Amino acid sequence: MSLRKFAAMLGHVRRLAWLVLPATFFACAEQIPDHIELQPSGESVEFAAEPPGTGAYQLVGPVTGQAAANDPEAAQQAAKNDLRNKAAAMGASLVTIDQDLGEPMPLQEKTKVRLVGRAYKSAD
Questions:
Q1: Which of these CATH numbers, 3.30.110.70, 3.30.420.40, 3.30.1330.60, 2.70.70.10, describes 32-122?
Q2: How do the domains of the chain map onto residue ranges?
Q3: Can you give the pLDDT at residue 35?
Q4: What is the pLDDT of residues 4-58, one digit of tens each?
Q5: Half-sphere exposure of 82 (CA within 13 A, CB side)
Protein backbone atom coordinates (compact mmCIF):
# COMPACT_ATOMS: atom_id res chain seq x y z
CA MET A 1 0.00 0.00 0.00
CA SER A 2 1.36 3.38 -0.96
CA LEU A 3 1.86 6.15 1.54
CA ARG A 4 -0.81 8.28 -0.18
CA LYS A 5 -3.44 5.55 0.02
CA PHE A 6 -2.59 4.96 3.66
CA ALA A 7 -2.88 8.68 4.47
CA ALA A 8 -6.24 8.89 2.65
CA MET A 9 -7.51 5.83 4.52
CA LEU A 10 -6.34 7.30 7.83
CA GLY A 11 -8.23 10.52 7.05
CA HIS A 12 -11.43 8.53 6.50
CA VAL A 13 -10.93 6.68 9.76
CA ARG A 14 -10.47 9.96 11.65
CA ARG A 15 -13.67 11.43 10.21
CA LEU A 16 -15.55 8.26 11.05
CA ALA A 17 -14.20 8.34 14.60
CA TRP A 18 -15.56 11.87 15.10
CA LEU A 19 -19.01 10.58 14.15
CA VAL A 20 -18.95 7.31 16.06
CA LEU A 21 -17.30 8.31 19.35
CA PRO A 22 -19.89 10.91 20.47
CA ALA A 23 -22.73 8.53 19.61
CA THR A 24 -21.01 5.77 21.57
CA PHE A 25 -20.51 8.08 24.56
CA PHE A 26 -24.20 8.99 24.76
CA ALA A 27 -25.31 5.41 24.15
CA CYS A 28 -23.16 4.22 27.04
CA ALA A 29 -24.31 6.98 29.40
CA GLU A 30 -25.73 5.44 32.52
CA GLN A 31 -29.51 5.24 32.38
CA ILE A 32 -30.84 5.66 35.90
CA PRO A 33 -34.55 6.16 36.55
CA ASP A 34 -35.58 9.59 37.80
CA HIS A 35 -38.89 8.57 39.34
CA ILE A 36 -39.44 5.37 41.28
CA GLU A 37 -42.83 4.62 42.78
CA LEU A 38 -42.93 3.03 46.21
CA GLN A 39 -44.55 -0.38 45.71
CA PRO A 40 -47.17 -1.60 48.22
CA SER A 41 -44.69 -4.21 49.50
CA GLY A 42 -42.05 -1.49 49.99
CA GLU A 43 -44.42 0.55 52.16
CA SER A 44 -43.95 -1.97 54.98
CA VAL A 45 -40.14 -1.54 55.01
CA GLU A 46 -38.99 0.90 57.69
CA PHE A 47 -35.70 2.79 57.96
CA ALA A 48 -33.50 2.42 61.05
CA ALA A 49 -30.69 4.80 61.99
CA GLU A 50 -28.68 1.98 63.59
CA PRO A 51 -28.48 -1.76 62.89
CA PRO A 52 -31.05 -3.61 65.02
CA GLY A 53 -30.21 -5.93 67.86
CA THR A 54 -29.45 -9.53 66.94
CA GLY A 55 -32.38 -10.96 68.89
CA ALA A 56 -35.18 -9.13 67.10
CA TYR A 57 -33.92 -9.06 63.50
CA GLN A 58 -31.75 -11.14 61.23
CA LEU A 59 -29.65 -9.79 58.38
CA VAL A 60 -31.01 -10.67 54.93
CA GLY A 61 -28.23 -9.02 52.92
CA PRO A 62 -26.89 -5.88 51.29
CA VAL A 63 -29.25 -3.71 49.26
CA THR A 64 -28.66 -0.76 46.92
CA GLY A 65 -31.06 1.86 45.65
CA GLN A 66 -30.33 4.54 43.10
CA ALA A 67 -32.06 7.26 41.13
CA ALA A 68 -31.27 10.47 39.32
CA ALA A 69 -33.30 13.65 38.91
CA ASN A 70 -32.93 17.35 38.20
CA ASP A 71 -33.89 18.05 41.82
CA PRO A 72 -31.54 16.45 44.40
CA GLU A 73 -34.43 16.01 46.88
CA ALA A 74 -36.48 14.13 44.27
CA ALA A 75 -33.47 11.94 43.46
CA GLN A 76 -33.01 11.18 47.18
CA GLN A 77 -36.66 10.21 47.62
CA ALA A 78 -36.66 8.05 44.49
CA ALA A 79 -33.49 6.27 45.67
CA LYS A 80 -35.13 5.61 49.04
CA ASN A 81 -38.17 4.17 47.28
CA ASP A 82 -35.87 1.95 45.20
CA LEU A 83 -34.07 0.80 48.36
CA ARG A 84 -37.34 -0.03 50.15
CA ASN A 85 -38.77 -1.84 47.11
CA LYS A 86 -35.63 -3.97 46.76
CA ALA A 87 -35.48 -4.71 50.48
CA ALA A 88 -39.14 -5.82 50.39
CA ALA A 89 -38.36 -8.12 47.44
CA MET A 90 -35.72 -9.76 49.66
CA GLY A 91 -38.34 -10.36 52.38
CA ALA A 92 -37.02 -7.59 54.65
CA SER A 93 -39.04 -5.29 56.88
CA LEU A 94 -36.20 -3.00 58.03
CA VAL A 95 -33.32 -1.34 56.23
CA THR A 96 -30.33 0.72 57.33
CA ILE A 97 -28.42 3.12 55.11
CA ASP A 98 -24.64 2.74 55.35
CA GLN A 99 -23.69 5.01 52.43
CA ASP A 100 -25.58 7.95 50.95
CA LEU A 101 -23.71 9.05 47.84
CA GLY A 102 -24.79 11.96 45.68
CA GLU A 103 -22.94 13.11 42.59
CA PRO A 104 -23.68 15.39 39.66
CA MET A 105 -24.26 13.93 36.22
CA PRO A 106 -22.64 16.58 33.97
CA LEU A 107 -24.17 16.58 30.43
CA GLN A 108 -27.55 15.50 31.86
CA GLU A 109 -27.97 18.27 34.46
CA LYS A 110 -29.08 15.73 37.05
CA THR A 111 -27.95 14.54 40.45
CA LYS A 112 -27.44 10.80 40.92
CA VAL A 113 -28.11 9.40 44.38
CA ARG A 114 -26.93 5.93 45.36
CA LEU A 115 -27.91 4.44 48.71
CA VAL A 116 -26.13 1.37 50.03
CA GLY A 117 -27.54 -0.38 53.05
CA ARG A 118 -28.43 -3.61 54.77
CA ALA A 119 -31.82 -5.32 54.78
CA TYR A 120 -33.19 -7.12 57.85
CA LYS A 121 -36.20 -9.28 58.53
CA SER A 122 -37.93 -10.06 61.78
CA ALA A 123 -36.37 -12.99 63.62
CA ASP A 124 -39.70 -14.63 64.46
A1: 3.30.110.70
A2: 1-30, 32-122
A3: 86
A4: 766 666 666 566 555 555 544 444 455 788 789 999 999 999 999 999 987 899 9
A5: 23
